[in-house]
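Let's practice the habit of predicting before peeking. Look at the sequence and jot down your guess about where helices and strands might fall. Then scroll down.
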Amino acid sequence: MVIWDDVICNMQEDQFCLLTFTMAFIFTHIRYTVLLLFTFVVSTAFAAGVAGPTPRMLDGTLALSQLYPDSAFLILKRLHQIALGANDKKTIGVSLQQMGKISYAQGHYAQSLDYHLQAEKVFLQLEDKKLLADNFNDLGSVYYQNIDRKSSRRQYNEALKIYKKLNNHTGLGETYGNIGHLQEKQQRYDSAFFYQRLALTEYRKADNRLGMAKIYENLGSIHEDLVRYDSAMHYFDLSLKLYHQGKNEVASIEVVNNIGDILRKQGGYTEGLAYSRKALKMSIETKNEYQQASAYRDISKAYNLMGRNDSAYHYLELSRKHLLQIYSVQNNKQMSFLQIIYNLDKKNDEIAALENNHKLNLTITVAVVIVVLLLIIMGALTISRQRLKLRESIVVAEKNAQLSAAQQEQLELKSKELTTHTLQVIQHNQFLENMRSTITDMVKDDKRDQKKQLQELVKQISQNINHDQQWKDFTGIFEQLHQSFFDNLKAHCADLTVNDIRLIALLKMNMSAKDMAAIFGISQDSLRVARYRLRKKMNIAEGENLISFIQSI
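Done guessing? Here is the structure:
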């Protein structure tokens, strides 16, 4: 049966549970008031012209995250957005780092890793070595939880390099302690001892008593794993003294529980039970549910070894209930945290979608305006070009008309000139022909003394009837009137003689047979023979008019 003192303890615990529930209810409502008040203070500060979130604000969110991580996360998200608008890189980086810490504490290691990696980029840009080293330590812890021990050790090594350059003993102590813990979990106890002692040395240099207490606690845990209970007890005692000096009751609960565990393992069940009850009392006073469940479990183990199975079962049930409550609370917190992240992501996606739509609408509007302007410009250019073409066409038409009139005038002039030249040739040849006929008649007379001279005169007249210079002048004028005619004629028939070409030119001018015969100084019968030969040479079909054929060339 359960002894009376256990029953009294249970009654006290039930009363305290009621008090705890009442306080939790009050704090549940207070947290929203705190959140609203903090947000109001931040917004008011920025409205008053504060350049960026102050260090005190960020310290406040760090403290708030211990009690209300979801509320602290929302505030950090707001601070991060404000810092982005103010281009305050330090606050951007610290906000990301703290959001990573909250995500880590809530068990969302992937989200935590993302925030810490973003913070690392910002700290690298700022060249803030201290913040960068702190972030490396946080990354090492995240990689350890993701069971990536190589990456975890790599992050710790990076932190060590920076802390050594900065001669930061507290940072070195923390990093050495983390590496020692990593070695302990890999059961490399010699390395674990080595790094924990290095951490202790650094904390002593920094006179950091809480850090030293944590290292003593780590050393005690390693000795306990190695079943070196006396050494473990020694280090736990040192740790407990330092925690008491620093008034850190929360951290000392686990040490008290560990001392009770060692006494129980050494057979001191009553002494061990006393320490476990002390740890239980401290955990109830500090509202530490996890340590309370651990104390119940150790009490149950002690009663089981003492043969008091009813009490053992009773405390084991209490431990189980507290663990279930812890896991339920943690699950609720995680669900709440995930809901916050989901809402934030959804809100960000909606904002991004609105911004994209706005950008798209702006782009479309700009594109439409540009297209309209281009169309207007193209229309104006087209109209201007058409007007220019119209002006040019009018100018060209006027010039062509003037040129055509000039050419027509020149053509008429040349035609008159050709006609006049031809008439002159005809008249000249007719005159010479008359003279030749007259002289020929005189030669037929028997006046011996004039015969020889007259024959010579006839010969000279005959030679000058068709002088080449006259034909050259004629040809020049003809070609001006009928350009490329002779070239086309030669392309049609290349075997034409000079007289053939002269005859064709006269036919082109529609000259009568009588005039042509006079020009050539031959009879009309001889002219007909010449025309027949020309038809044959040019392969003109029978029945086709010679003059019509020549006009078509």
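How did you do? Residues 1-166 form a domain with the Serine Threonine Protein Phosphatase 5, Tetratricopeptide repeat fold (CATH 1.25.40.10).
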